[in-house]
């Protein structure tokens, strides 16, 4: 399968995911990867990722398929973790494989931009002083997603 | 045709309401999400308070993002949640 | 060291390189990676990568430092292989770490675009029918590099 | 002041010339890469032929990309090569 979508608590193996993408086709010339991790600062200890089971997988699969078509990808991987993740831990991996680097890198940006505001995940921050708060959506993330155009209405 | 809809709440909404789901009866067809929500808020002070205090609530109907004008059918799964913050 | 530049015959370990970048700072929120590999087709068997020892390392280090400054990176890795590489084998890894995804992904594009036409590597293709030929520079690669502006004159 | 410069050739140039380097005497200061190359081509028919047949040759002086108007000093390392095709 050229599309791989996972929502899981466990960490992922970037080396293995890259090897899987790489082996999908002899016609791959470039792979793009983005890995998001919990950024520290201001006493942050951890993030807890909540999601909408079922809908999350559906949305991520639609997004991956849209990326495959839009950028003529030869392969694509989206892995998103849920649960409690400490500062420095990986949250998300987006990987793309294409004949040429431009498509792979553009598709990587597309997938992570769209995922940020279009997939049902929510982050709660927990700080060293005991304070905890849900992360507000960032307007710039919504702008970034919008630059790729509207998500086409999915047939259900 | 009568029945019910299952409503899910996520993230800050879930926490503030102190519940992650509820079943509500749906007696008539042709109701929109907004219609249903208006009735629910009239009968549930806490729900009314939390929804009034939370900007930009999103809705999904049967796990598909929709508008508050989406028509609700018996058996549907509705979900309310704040703007998504993945990645 | 936040900048890591290697020119080597051996394969690289994408997982280990990602882990190294990830561990450089608690303030990393995103990492971008590009991996180029030998694209098959038209009976291609292998590429042989020639380089200019000494100058290559100097140019790649300058490029990495420019990327660090331009995109406020927290870390950056450029590994380029030389010698004979078969179809499907990895050629180059570019990795970046930054506070936010936009900087990491832009820097990844910047580094690979500039590397393509600005570092002294040359590729020779070898085909199943015995034909062998040096790869011509592609005009679109030169345009891609030029979109990032001129390489500033290095002080020597 | 006299001396020599070391010249390196890479990729297709190296193959066509059948050599990867050569030392050439440099008798006077103030010569540019173009000046030096003109003299070399006058005395080396093969070099002349290969350079004439190869478009877009690049030059590096002391491992730094330069123009053909770069001034050459005794002890310098010059390198000629086709457009680079890394990545």
Automatic annotation (TrEMBL), chains A, C:
Record GO terms (molecular function): molybdopterin synthase activity
Pfam family, one: MoaE
Pathway: Cofactor biosynthesis; molybdopterin biosynthesis
Enzyme class, first EC level, given as a word: transferase
Listed InterPro entries: MoaE_sf, Mopterin_biosynth_MoaE
E.C. numbers: 2.8.1.12
Catalysed reactions, semicolon-separated: 2 [molybdopterin-synthase sulfur-carrier protein]-C-terminal-Gly-aminoethanethioate + cyclic pyranopterin phosphate + H2O = molybdopterin + 2 [molybdopterin-synthase sulfur-carrier protein]-C-terminal Gly-Gly + 2 H(+)
Highest taxon in the source lineage: Bacteria
Assigned keywords, A-Z: Molybdenum cofactor biosynthesis
Entry's Gene Ontology BP terms: Mo-molybdopterin cofactor biosynthetic process
Job description of the protein: Converts molybdopterin precursor Z into molybdopterin. This requires the incorporation of two sulfur atoms into precursor Z to generate a dithiolene group. The sulfur is provided by MoaD.
Family according to the record: Belongs to the MoaE family.
Subunit record text: Heterotetramer of 2 MoaD subunits and 2 MoaE subunits. Also stable as homodimer. The enzyme changes between these two forms during catalysis.
Protein name: Molybdopterin synthase catalytic subunit
Annotated source species: Acetobacter pomorum
From TrEMBL, chains B, D:
Keyword Kinase attached: no
GO molecular function (one): nucleotide binding
GO terms under cellular component: molybdopterin adenylyltransferase complex
Presence of the UniProt keyword Aminoacyl-tRNA synthetase in the record: no
Family annotation (Gene3D superfamilies): 3.10.20.30
Keywords: Nucleotide-binding
Pfam family, one: ThiS
InterPro entries linked: Beta-grasp_dom_sf (IPR012675), MOCS2A (IPR044672), Mopterin_synth/thiamin_S_b (IPR016155), ThiS/MoaD-like (IPR003749)
GO biological processes: Mo-molybdopterin cofactor biosynthetic process
Domain of life: Bacteria
Family the UniProt entry places it in: Belongs to the MoaD family.
Name of this protein: Molybdopterin synthase sulfur carrier subunit
Organism: Acetobacter pomorum
């Amino acid at each position: 399968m050229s599309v791989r979508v996972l929502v899981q608590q466990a960490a992922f193996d970037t080396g293995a995911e890259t090897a899987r993408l790489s082996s999908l086709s002899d016609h791959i010339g470039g792979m793009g990867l983005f890995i998001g991790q919990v950024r520290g600062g201001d006493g942050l200890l951890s993030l807890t990722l909540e999601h909408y089971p079922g809908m999350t997988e559906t949305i991520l699969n639609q997004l991956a398929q849209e990326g495959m078509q839009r950028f003529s990808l030869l392969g694509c991987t989206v892995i998103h973790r849920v649960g409690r993740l400490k500062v420095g831990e990986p949250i998300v991996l987006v990987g793309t494989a294409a004949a040429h680097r431009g498509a792979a890198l553009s598709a990587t940006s597309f997938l992570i931009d769209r995922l940020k505001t279009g997939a049902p995940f929510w982050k709660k921050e927990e700080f060293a002083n005991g304070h905890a708060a849900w992360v507000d959506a960032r307007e710039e993330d919504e702008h970034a997603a919008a630059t790729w155009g509207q998500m086409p209405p999915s047939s259900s | 045709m009568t029945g019910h809809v299952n409503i899910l709440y996520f993230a800050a909404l879930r926490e503030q309401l102190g519940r992650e789901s509820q079943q509500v009866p749906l007696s008539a067809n042709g109701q929109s999400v907004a219609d249903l929500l208006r009735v629910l808020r009239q009968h549930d002070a806490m729900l009314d308070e939390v929804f009034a205090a939370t900007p930009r609530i999103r809705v999904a109907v049967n796990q598909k993002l929709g508008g508050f004008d989406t028509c609700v059918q018996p058996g549907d799964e509705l979900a309310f949640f704040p703007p998504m913050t993945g990645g």
